[in-house]
Write a structure and sequence with these properties.
four-stranded mixed sheet; three-stranded antiparallel sheet; 32% helix; paralog of FGE (formylglycine-generating enzyme); homotetramer; 424 residues
């Protein structure tokens, strides 16, 4: 995964990794605070997984690819559990069907936490040795857990949204109601540009190899589309105008009777949306979120614009990482809001995942890793679109300019939004 | 529901009803002992409901049809809850879709139990007054809760069966392995026979009115079909022989790839089945259970017999009630086993629900009750078949000769079995 | 099938059978007059079959069960065709899936007619010999073809109804607009009544054995429900009133968005319906048709009545046959209309198939025939309801008092109607 | 559509267009020779359309966008027909659902041909005038009809393949059995390359605008993958090896139980496939065809290669057109076979459509045409992959280097094949 040779890990590096491992593992547990056994067990749709399952699956990842494979003498916590907590690794053998994850009322949360303790202890003990040759796998395990931290929150949000009582996971964030930032167009770089990870720091295999790409003249919006703008789109019958939509998108809109972003209810100028703090008024100045690629594309057509390619997006964000953004470090940071400007661009990182117009396909020269871990990214490279920038639910430090997230064009239970682009 | 005028309830009758109300309400709560919050919340298929939902729905029944409708000044425990816990009463307005009952991680079990306490207190206080004019409704509420006690167990059994770890709800019953009772044919009554409730004791509206029916010469088996006999059917390729099956049954067998009763696994003479005590060996002498009407009918064809009509079954069981049988009074009594003989017939009551060959249709002169309660039975009189006799999971005292249970011909998650019949 | 020993067939009986065979075979061919190759090939839904398939399947029936099985030396017309034209006989081996019947653009109609000629010649040559021992099978083949003549028309009607151009199969019947007959209630026989075929003339196995049944006091309507009455039901929001419907029926109404009988369009008092003569005004005095069992049952509830049992219906019609009615003898007689009264009952036979409230189950002592022909009726005895009396599309002489037709409760592409009943 | 201003059409240009119009219109009609009314009417799956529908839809295209819109005084042939023959143009209003096209047994083929005559006459009369301002639309209509000529053949092939009798559309082509060409890798151009139509000749809007793209070092195979190589893939359990497949592809393989290319049957080295000449032996030297993108991608993985990008493919084919290839000019040329080499590359054009690894998305700066015709290409730019080169069923002169065909990754009823590529 890592695009540079493993350093013979110096002690201070080991300490840092140990700290990072512990911090990440604890955060997952913290995110489950305040939830009862049922909240953590129920699965609200096949796309989503139970909180408890996320806690166990991330543990299974460390147990399988590090402890079982690389630590002699390690004994599995329970030999029946890999069948339960393997997600999609064909090379790891049979496993529960995805839509059945919610049937696991047992093992209990307490047993799951004991599993985590067991694996964490073994990992901490083995970490110095593992770092010598498998530092990239340790880091992959951490990054993997961070991805599931975001999913844990979006999956839980979906579950709570289906409950007619609309329970809250967190207290509402009393954010001051901000003024909307005026839309401006900023020309992006033209001609040859380097894409992909520059080799400093961790990168998933799908960010590699670094390679040139030719950019046509274009401009990007200075900020994501806002709820207020989306309300105009709704009012202008955007959801009822076939001419704005991709054919598949139009089929989807009609079959699913979609007429607003996910989690919205209301009409006219009176809208509220379901959040992790329960039902809340829609803030017109905040970035719109929970829209599908189809909606994003239709909105762009309506606005006389288009979605950026992932190359255009990445060319602007290169060299930047998430430290300038705002991301999850506690359970409260879970709603998009307008964030500070960097070089003219607001909210590039850590607000909403921005749909690009690029289908998720391999970079030129892409190679999957060997073994089961090779299934991590590559086998999903059809039927999905690339998203960039991370969301309010992405853990701090997880995202970067070359990061390629991907979802199917109809999916919208993630914190997904839109930044417009134009050809010049 | 009751086919006689309400007596001006004497004090001792009121005491008896009060005792019965308390005993029934407590039993539901007792049945949930040992389950965690998730066990009680998850729904494993649309046909089944969560344990927690059963606890709340039975409470809603008393709250709605007695407290709300008949007790002036009663305040609903929570105005949002009827939407959650109305099962199928169209006259009671909108409600959650049945397959979504498992999404209710809130309200919690503790809130559900508080709901039960609230309603029980109000019921106990109002009971003397209610018995004056609504004794039949009180009894209906109790009978209704008893039905849900059985469903609670069968629904939980289904949930646990879907868990690869096969958790146990109760300790296995160390029943002595019995010898199978030899099959004998006993001629039933011929000619004109009275059907339906004789008016002594409670009866659902679908057991009324009492009416004559003409019985052709026939005989019934002295006992239900056993697991051992079913194993012979399997070995003789019964599940692969189209000629034995109804056309719909044959479609079902192939589409669902059915080759054994529900919950069986194994082959040859080596079978185990999932029980409320986890995976256990199949006892050849015990009555077969968890078979669909289609399987029951195919087995009967294979055996050169047929299913009894509900009239034939009822003619034998008239005047008998469940006191002679064995039914649920604690959580342990939850597996069929051969039981003592009465007048030549073994296990008529309280072992397995016996499929009859009679489609569930109204008795001549049938009338539904007025109001929402009229939806209790009548609207289900298409597409289902009648079952008789009660099962090991039926609460003591709940079933009787005229009792008409009903399920769709493919359903088999109840404790359903087979008694053979023959025309003479 | 026949419930009496085969007579040593006298020459005049043979002549009569020969005449009847020829007449029936020719009628099928005549019914296809005026249709093009595509009209005869396309399948509009899985329930329906192409005209061409009906022509071939009825021929296959004679070829298989008489020529192949009983005539030494007979050579199949084409060895590949039984796979194409076996309908549902498991004992006859593999066959095309039902929904794929419409893919057979080859063999052509001309080849199909050559097949008919080939089989007819062989049948006519073999008939004297066949009548000696297999007269019942010859008659079954004829009755079978008559059933398919009715299906040919209803399947074609469905196909044409799906065509936006609404083509006509036949010229409209310029029937004089009649006055509606006032509704009267006529008490039916009470107490013990004999049911089933009396052994005079042909009967399907499902009409046997003759047996007593006990009838409760009741009355039947003198005539079927009319279009005019159905329009009142629509106007009174019958299709929107859950309380009138069986639970399965209510699900069906909502899922399929049903708000009128099949083939109706319009509103208020301005309705037309699709007929074999194209779109025509709805005649308020004519019997309503193309309603499902669910609709029939809901209408009866709305009218404060119920559907008759098949026993009640049959008790009135015993000894009567179709000669007093009006049935198909040419392609024009294909719309229900009020017909002459017999003993106070109008339109008992040959107008609309009247839904009864009786589930289609075996008569006491029922036995299927041996061999593949035993699949004719018995295996369909679940999930369907009995209809009586025949329709305007039933061939003359085909129906009788003991005749038991059967369809699923949601099906309505046959000429199905309603006669009301009441318990007294 | 055309990327250059309309010339004031010179007489010789008009003559050429007229000739081309007539030739194309006649070819469609010729392709239907030998088919009966039913062959031309039945629809074998939602993806496919009836032959008759293709004949009418292509006519509707000329009638609507040229005669109705541009020729004053033109009267529609039948006002009800646009509802029947509009394919997917939302701007043209309501239309039949796609899966219902096969219900149109009327209008008849004769009426369809009269429609064609009517429109052709009007077109020929109006052509000189139309060429002055709408030459691009006339050419679009011709190109559109050519696309439907290919679909007509592939849709018909699918229909005939579903018929157990396996009818033949054309006589088998007695092609000499050729030796397979050895596989060689040819390096493609690197660095900046121009993509898209160069503006000489017709181009669809999706081939525009011309733009630079940066190509990484790579090589392409000199010829498509052969049947013989595919048989090795099958023998090596390629269809059973999860590791070779994209995740969506693996789901598809299992759900559809795919184990060979479409239309194959047999085992080991003994394979035949269904062709327009009926069932024929598979020629190991011929290009494999009727494979999905998923299969193409899995095969490439198995072969240690990958699919070419559309850029890589186009860079090789630039400036070339189909005259060097072999395409449909009569009904017989409808099976792929190895064809003569051009610059080292065999079968670039006119043999099988070659799947590329490029998702079908707009070129930088892409703009749809105004009006309903703008729906031609752009709205399909999600969920599909680009194919290049044309097939044996593509009309002569229709395809070119910049041509972008597109299908969903699971579709394989077109003549689709594979050319391997490698990164260097």
């Amino acid at each position: 995964m890592r695009n540079q040779p493993d350093p013979a890990a110096a002690p201070w590096v080991q300490d840092a990794i140990l700290e990072r491992f512990r911090w990440t593992r604890n955060l997952s547990r913290d995110l489950a605070q305040g939830l009862n056994e049922a909240d953590m067990t129920v699965q609200s749709m096949p796309d989503a997984s139970p909180v408890k399952w996320h806690l166990a699956h991330t543990t299974w990842f460390f147990e399988t690819f590090l402890l079982r494979d690389q630590v002699p003498g390690y004994r599995l916590f329970d030999e029946r559990w890999p069948f339960l907590f393997n997600s999609y690794y064909e090379a790891e053998g049979a496993r529960m069907a995805r839509p059945e994850r919610g049937l696991l009322t047992r093992p209990t949360v307490a047993e799951m936490l004991a599993y985590r303790d067991h694996v964490d202890e073994a990992m901490v003990a083995a970490l110095p040795r593992l770092m010598e040759r498998h530092g990239e796998l340790v880091e992959l395990g951490i990054q993997h857990e961070q991805q599931h931290q975001e999913l844990l929150l979006t999956d839980l949000k979906h579950l709570f949204s289906r409950n007619p009582l609309g329970p809250a996971y967190a207290a509402a964030n009393p954010a001051p109601k901000l003024e909307s930032v005026p839309l401006r167009w900023i020309a992006g770089p033209e001609g040859l540009a380097e894409m992909g990870s520059d080799g400093r720091g961790f990168a998933f295999d799908n960010e590699l190899p670094r390679h040139p790409s030719w950019l046509a003249p274009h401009a990007l919006a200075n900020r994501p589309v806002t709820n207020g703008e989306w309300i105009e789109f709704v009012a202008d019958r955007g959801y009822a105008s076939a001419a704005l939509w991709l054919s598949d998108g139009w089929d989807w809109v009609r079959q699913e009777a979609v007429s607003t972003p996910l989690y919205w209810r209301g009409h006219g100028n009176d809208w509220e949306h379901f959040t992790l703090a329960g039902w809340q008024p829609v803030d017109p100045a905040a970035p719109v979120t929970h829209v599908s690629f189809y909606e994003a594309d239709a909105f762009a057509s309506w606005a006389g614009a288009r979605l950026p390619t992932e190359h255009e997006w990445e060319a602007v964000a290169q060299g930047r990482d998430t430290l300038g953004g705002v991301q999850l470090d506690h359970a409260g940071a879970v709603a998009p809001r307008p964030e500070g400007e960097v070089d003219g661009f607001a909210s590039l990182f850590g607000n909403v995942w921005e749909w690009t117009g690029s289908a998720y396909r391999p970079w030129p020269g892409y190679r999957t890793a060997a073994g089961a871990v090779g299934e991590y990214n590559g086998k999903f490279m059809s039927g999905q679109f690339v998203l960039k920038g991370g969301s309010c639910a992405t853990p701090r430090g997880h995202v970067r300019g070359s990061y390629r997230n991907f979802f199917h064009p109809h999916q919208r239970w993630q914190f997904t939004g839109v930044r417009l682009a134009r050809s010049l």
